[in-house]
Design brief:
Helices cover 61% and strands 4% of the residues. The radius of gyration is 18 Å and the shape is globular.
Length: 189
């Protein structure tokens, strides 16, 4: 149970990070916005848990990786619903982008559900779902509190953002490999 609570806290932190927007200016003066802090020039290279060349991350653990997928799915749904209500003019573009995201990630979503079903009991799955829903609600509340021009800007750019690398989980090879190479645990007879 402690392992699941720790997992939930990690997932809550990673999902609530979706509501933070980082602005960075490149050497060419190009301004970019992201939900991740700017990339540093160096990455850790020590060996941890047999993973050579980098430190072990949440994407290496099937249950945590499944939570990442579920958290992103709920965040996508929350942004879609928010923008439909707040900036209806963006509905068509966001709906198309959301549908494409769901189609592109359908195998990961199915695998995430399988992993959670296999590794978490009903109470743990319900608790995890509650935490992830709360994180999505926090994302929406942050958007609601933003000035009207920021809400418009967010919703107008959401269709592009949904297709961007940082929310395209298929671009995360470690996450994809962890999920797709997962094999269901044999049940005792």
């Amino acid at each position: 149970m402690l392992r699941v609570l720790a997992l939930m806290l990690v997932l809550f932190a990673s999902t609530t990070a979706l509501s933070t927007v980082y602005k960075s200016v490149g050497p060419d003066g190009k301004v970019t916005y992201s939900d991740r802090p700017p990339v540093q020039d160096s990455t850790p290279t020590k060996q941890v848990d047999g993973v050579s060349g980098r430190q072990r991350r949440d994407e290496d653990d099937p249950v945590k990786a499944a939570g990442i997928v579920t958290g992103h799915e709920l965040a996508m749904d929350a942004v879609l619903q928010f923008c439909r209500r707040e900036v209806p003019a963006t509905n068509d573009a966001i709906s198309r982008a959301h549908q494409q995201w769901m189609e592109r990630h359908s195998a990961l979503i199915a695998k995430a559900k399988e992993i959670q079903q296999d590794n978490l009991d009903t109470r743990e799955r319900q608790a995890l779902a509650g935490i992830l829903r709360q994180a999505s609600a926090s994302l929406v509340n942050g958007l609601r509190r933003a000035p009207a021009d920021e809400r418009n800007k967010t919703c107008s750019g959401a269709s592009t953002k949904i297709g961007a690398y940082d929310v395209n989980l298929m671009a995360n090879a470690t996450l994809v490999n962890t999920l797709m190479n997962y094999r269901k645990k044999p049940r005792p007879q």
